[in-house]
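Hi everyone, sorry if this is the wrong subforum. Our group has a chain we'd like a structural model of before ordering constructs, and none of us has done structure prediction before. Sequence below.
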Amino acid sequence: MRSFCGEKTLMRVFIGEADRCNGKPLYQALVELFRERGLAGATVLKGVMGFGASSLIHTDSILSLSADLPVVIELVDTRENIDKVLPELDDMLHGGMITLEKAHVIHYSRKKS
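Answer:
Right subforum, don't worry. Here is the predicted structure as tokens:
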């Protein structure tokens, strides 16, 4: 297994749960893309409340249940590997936001079976 510790880049992709790409949830299409491109890993996080550029609040509150909760996909890899997939994200995202920041990886390994 390659050594992965040290300075890397954290990418966060902020989208809505209802966003789609080729008939499937966008978050699923993104994770599949990241895996196909050999990135180190990705995690999808579902928010309980949020708002974006439209300022419309999306919440899981029973009083105003939203069908479009916020979703964040996080992944950590080298800046070079992330830069390679960014053009493909431009084609897949029709809204949302992408952020990049430095991350210092202190441990990365596979589960022992």
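For your construct planning: Strands lie at 6-16, 20-21, 24-25, 42-46, 49-50, 58-59, 70-77, 97-105. The chain is about 20% helix and 35% strand.
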